[in-house]
Amino acid sequence: MSAERAATAFAEVYGTPPTGVWAAPGRVNLIGEYTDFNDGFVMPLALPHTTHAAASPRTDGVLRLHSADGDGKVVELRTDDLAPARTRGGDGGGWAAYPAGVLWALREAGHPLPGADLHYESTVPTGAGLSSSAALEVATALALDDLYGLGIEAPRLARIAQHAENDFVGVPCGIMDQMAAACCAEGHALYLDTRDLTQRHVPFDLAAHGLTLLVVDTRVKHELGDGAYARRRAGCEAGARALGVRALRDVPYEQLPDALDQLDDDTIRRYVRHVVTEDHRVEQVIALLDAGYARAVGPVLNAGHASLRDDLGVSCAELDLVVEAACDAGALGARMTGGGFGGSAVVLAAESDAEAVTKAVRDAFATAGYRAPRVFPAVPSGGARRVA
Question: How deeply is 8 buried, as exposed, middle or buried, from its count of CB atoms within 10 A (0-12, 13-18, 19+)?
Fold first, then answer.
């Protein structure tokens, strides 16, 4: 239905039917936060929430962009005039910068695309830490790849989408979100080594264990988060330089105490501790799932949240309340997911406890005077694909 709606809306906006419709999902990250730009390990899964891109090629050097969630106006750009954020005085350019950046990045990669018409429909919540921007980028990248027969494989498309976000939009994100949108498989979590993009699809059938993974969208985004991601990335890179390693991924978990003793800056020390222990937590979760001990993942999630809250300092009152209320109500474990300062948390719970846990979280928010959170199960879904 979403594909049909996107195609119908495209025809209404541009006057002709689209050549096709492509979709890319949002994602939730089970474990492995702030590790991807440290060449570390992550474990996201795609959500059924998707961004659909209806598209047709152009030959006149014009890129036209329209979103059902926008102001109703068509953004029209000249492909030859596209320029990265550093030459635009740091202006992010709004939502249209993300798909425009993808076309720019493809051209930078040696594919002189002459333009396109695109219309977007999305069910990925924005500002929820569920990678709506990566879904937008990857849907665009796949559409353009298909429209022009480029034949670019999914991991490379993810790299191009990341290049668009890093250098065109000016957001210094890692590769996890784009890889999740491009490469996840239905019924699986994606175990990804972000250094070489080695990946393994890990079966993730919690129902077989009587479990469920809930996503709790706090529906808040604090301004404190603006620029905080970049500062933490810079701090991690400073830590790697101080320790003489290419990236913090290269600090062995067993040698972490010695590494921390070499650091004088307490902030950098905390960042290093988070990344090294978080990489270790990803490996713990993989081992537990491989061994069939899904219930034992809960305490690892709790430890991850404590590290994100205390060492990295990227949680907030609402996220902490989700974790506290859920665990008090019987959840096996919970943690914030995504960049933090708002957004979403994940909660691992027995299916029989899901309703009580959800109620406890909602009641806690009401008591605190917070806006009611959005709660839904995380259903491991497929990555980007052509849908019409």
Answer: middle
> Residue written as tokens 């993810």?
158
- How many Å separate Cα 185 from the centre of its chain? 15
CB 321 within 8 A of CB 365: yes
Rounded CA gap, 129 and 184, in Å? 17
Reported as a single tens digit per residue, the pLDDT across 300-337 is 999 999 999 999 999 999 999 999 999 999 999 999 99
Q: Please, which pLDDT band fits residue 80 given cuts at 50, 70 and 90?
A: very high
Residues 6 or more apart whose CB falls under 8 angstroms from that of 354 comprise 212, 214, 377
- The CB-based long-range contact list for 360-364 (8 Å cut-off, 24+ gap) reads 360/325, 360/326, 360/328, 360/329, 361/216, 361/321, 361/322, 361/325, 361/326, 361/329, 363/325, 364/321, 364/322, 364/324, 364/325
* Residue of 81, 95, 72, 98 whose CA lies nearest to 13: 72
Q: Specify the DSSP element, H or E, that contains 159.
A: helix 154-163
Q: How many CA atoms lie within 13 A of 79 on its CB side?
A: 22
Distance CA 13, CA 372 (A): 35
Q: Which amino acid is at 160?
A: I
Q: Which residues are catalytic?
A: 177
| Cβ neighbours of residue 367 closer than 8 Å, sequence gap 6 or more | none
Residue 339 C-alpha from the chain's centroid: 9
The residues pairing with 337 across neighbouring beta strands, listed in sequence order, are 344
**CA Rg value for the chain:** 21
Residue 8 CA to residue 247 CA, distance in Å, equals 47
For residue 27, the cross-strand partners are 46
- Quick: pLDDT tens for 4-50: 999 999 999 999 999 999 999 999 999 999 999 999 999 999 999 99
The strand pairing partners of 345, in sequence order, are 216, 336
Residue whose token pair is 């937008």: 136
pTM, rounded to two decimals: 0.94
